[in-house]
Design goal:
The complex is a heterodimer of chains A (174) and B (131). Chain A has 174 residues and is mainly α. Chain A has one domain. In chain A, 72% of the residues lie in helices and 0% in strands. Chain A contains 5 helices and no strands. The N and C termini of chain A lie close together (8 Å). Chain B has 131 residues and is mostly helical. Chain B has a domain of 82 residues. Chain B has 5 helices and no strands. In chain B, helix 2 runs parallel beside helix 5 and helix 3 runs antiparallel to helix 4. Chain B starts with a helix and ends with a helix. In chain B, 40% of the residues are buried. The chains are: A mainly alpha (174), B mainly alpha (131). Chains A and B meet through helix 2 and helix 5 of A and helix 4 of B.
Chain lengths: 174, 131
């Protein structure tokens, strides 16, 4: 533990509660909750588009779902990676550039996620703002952006929780 | 100890009954049975945790960094997903005017009571196993 704190990067030590198992568990639950909210914001927009409350000519169709699909795919890719492989090249036994492969796959995941967020903004602007949708119809575009941002937030929470786990098991091993 | 256990079971079953009463009222009062989906969601919610907890081997303490830990976290992720789904589903239905606001409130409260009962039972039996 003592030589761990010598290798830290920042001036302030990491708060102790960040390493507890309970925080990690709560983080994973919270990530699931955020992903659920994201999905249901989109489903709400789609249902609202079909309901009788939507008097406008704007409707959600396949284009509106593509950014969310890319975001979810990116989240899946990012969180499938075993985080300890990212620094695997510093170990002698792992040849064949495992860390390099992990970084490429991780880059693809981040690209898919950023593309999803950018795509949702594109849909909002091109499909709703430019064609001057009024508020109830504008919600379809806003919901798209909100859902993709929530997927990204959920992914961040899951990533932080998983890194927490590594520290936790390391402390246990010591 | 046995008395306390018996009392807990009775109280929990009362809460479960009240939860089901609220959800069924929210459906039957307005002749619209969509809020019953909440019950299905909350009954399904602890199942990923159970399955993934059983799936990860008992010696996952050694390799919880890569092996069993990931599976357990997958189960927790889906449980968190389903719990929030139980609240989000009535809100979506009410926002799109498929059910009424009163039905939404009743089904959310009833669903939370049902889920709280399930979780309390899990905690209760878990403590029983330890002793």
């Amino acid at each position: 533990m003592a030589d761990l704190s010598n290798h830290r990067l920042f001036r302030f030590p990491k708060p102790q509660w960040l390493n507890s198992a309970n925080t990690r568990t709560a983080g994973v639950y919270f990530a699931g909750a955020l992903f659920s909210i994201a999905l249901f914001v989109l489903i709400d927009a789609a249902t609202f588009s079909k309901s009788h409350l939507n008097g406008s000519d704007f409707h959600m169709n396949g284009v509106d779902w593509i950014p969310a699909i890319f975001s979810a795919l990116g989240m899946l890719i990012i969180n499938m990676i075993d985080k300890s492989r990212l620094s695997a090249d510093s170990f002698s036994y792992s040849g064949d550039g495992v860390a390099w492969k992990a970084r490429v796959v991780l880059f693809l995941g981040f690209a898919a996620m950023a593309g999803g967020l950018a795509g949702s903004v594109t849909v909002l602007v091109l499909k709703y703002v430019v064609q001057e949708a009024a508020w109830p119809a504008l919600w379809f575009g806003v919901a798209n952006v909100v859902a993709n941002a929530l997927v990204m937030l959920s992914s961040v929470v899951l990533w932080v929780s998983q890194n927490m786990e590594d520290d936790y098991t390391y402390n246990l091993a010591l | 100890m046995a008395m306390a256990g018996l009392r807990t079971i009775i109280i929990l079953s009362f809460i479960l009954a009240i939860g089901f009463l609220l959800v069924i009222l929210s459906s039957a009062l307005y002749k619209n049975f969509l809020p019953l989906l909440v019950v299905a969601t909350y009954v399904l919610a602890p199942i990923p945790n159970w399955i993934c907890g059983r799936w990860s081997t008992s010696d996952d303490f050694m390799d919880s960094g890569s092996g069993g830990g990931g599976v357990v976290e997958l189960g927790r992720f889906f449980t968190g997903f389903l719990v929030v789904m139980g609240v989000a589903l009535p809100v979506v239905l009410a926002h799109c005017d498929l059910i009424r606001i009163e039905a939404m409130v009743m089904s959310i409260i009833g669903g939370l009571l049902i889920y709280g009962t399930i979780i309390s039972f899990g905690l209760f039996f878990h403590q029983e196993e330890e002793f």
